Amino acid sequence: MEIEIEIIGKGNLNAILDERNPKTARMIYENLPLEGEANIWLEEIYFDVPLKLEYENPSSTTTKGDLSYWPPGSAFCIFYGESQPASDVNNIGRVEDKLKLFSKVKNDDKIVIRKLNKI
What we know:
With 119 residues, the protein is mostly beta strands. The protein has one domain: Cyclophilin. Helices cover 8% and strands 39% of the residues. The longest helix has 9 residues. The two termini are 16 Å apart.
């Protein structure tokens, strides 16, 4: 499941939702597009999404480039550096390149996640 992440006014990049938490990834994908206002915590960006999903295969760790869903806060999370989650997350995908774009994101920047349209 290929997606596009756009930081309005700053750029966009492509990512893939994977099978580590397949039910969570599928629910996110089926509800795209999603948008929200960025919150920054260390080297993580997160924002609320209107989905109430449960833990599937929770993990207390992430790797650089992981996309995750945080059930307690109904939040989509982007881990672009060495930060680790404050509590367990469902890891659902990966960003492979252009991670430096996320270091330009500020609190309240608008982020849109949509299905990648292939031409």
